[in-house]
Design goal:
Blueprint lengths: L5 E6 L17 H9 L3 E4 L5 H10 L7 E3 L4 E3 L13 H9 L3 H4 L2 E3 L5 H8 L3 H7 L5 E6 L3 H12 L4 E4 L4 E4 L4 H12 L6 E7 L5 H4 L4 E4 L18 E4 L4 H15 L2
Parallel strand pairs: 1-2, 1-9, 9-10, 10-11
Antiparallel strand pairs: 3-4, 5-6, 6-8, 7-8
């Protein structure tokens, strides 16, 4: 008897599954429906909060899958499982940020400094979505407005306090650690089953997706005209690397339909 491999897909959201400007995933619906029909897993991996991802995950009809939230700083459990780990360290994180010397602190502005209207203006989110984006538990996205030398000093000062700085497509995000790639490897280890092989796929568009793409069998870079892209990706022994022809959810759809056809 031929056993079909289980397909597990990890996907970034903004600029990848969601259009960079409109946050629409409609162009990807054919591939999403085909993935559901094949009983594949779709694990969203984003800088978004659990409060933002949960309704989107339901809209995609993959609420039975976990999700990677706040750039890998936390995991949102599936709705079939227990509640996600809600031991928030956000106040501690902001405390470290506010304790920096003034010349460093004043050059960084993040979600804790902005009200929902400003978050909406800076991200293009609706006011309602911006309010969900402010419900942070693990990390603080923000914008550095100082010099490159100052940013290096900012990162070094936070690193000494155990805070990591991860630069993405729009924001520099602070957290106590954890990357998308680390969470991908953690979740794949949970899914290991000698009876059913797993084929893992990851799709992303920004430098903070690199580690995630390096952790799977099939890595897909989605082009994003808003930034220069992911850069060089380290290739594993049997890994397949692809670059989508189209940007955003249209590229996601085209590449995932091709993957689904190939592994049949």
């Amino acid at each position: 008897m031929i056993i079909r491999p289980r397909l597990v897909v990890f996907s970034d959201l903004d600029g990848t599954l969601l259009d960079h400007e409109t946050y629409d995933f409609t162009p990807a619906l054919p591939a999403i429906k085909a993935l559901r029909a094949r009983f594949g897993a779709l694990i969203l991996a984003s800088s978004k909060t659990a409060a933002e991802i949960a309704p989107l995950r339901r809209a995609l009809d993959f609420a039975h899958c976990p999700a990677i939230v706040e750039n890998g700083a936390g995991i949102l459990a599936s709705e079939r499982g227990s509640q996600h780990d809600s031991r928030s360290r956000y106040e501690e994180l902001i405390g470290h940020l506010d304790a920096l010397p003034d010349e460093l602190r004043r050059s960084y502005a993040g979600f804790s400094d902005w009200d929902a209207r400003e978050v909406a203006a800076r991200t293009g989110l609706s006011l309602e979505a911006a309010q969900l984006a402010k419900q942070r538990e693990y990390s603080e996205p923000g914008i550095w407005s100082g010099t490159e030398e100052g940013f290096t000093a900012f990162c070094n000062a936070l690193n000494r306090l155990g805070v990591h700085v991860q630069k993405g497509g729009r924001f520099a995000t602070l957290s106590f650690g954890g990357t998308k790639g680390q969470r991908v490897r953690e979740l794949l280890a949970r899914l290991e089953d000698k009876r059913v092989p797993v084929v893992s796929v990851a799709l992303g568009d920004a430098p903070n997706d690199r580690d995630m793409l390096e952790s799977v069998d099939i890595a897909v870079e989605i082009p994003n005209p808003a930034h220069p892209g992911i850069g060089k990706i380290a290739r594993g022994g049997s890994q397949v690397l692809r670059k989508a022809r189209l940007a955003g959810p249209a590229g996601w759809n085209e590449e995932m339909l091709a993957v689904l056809e190939e592994i049949e």
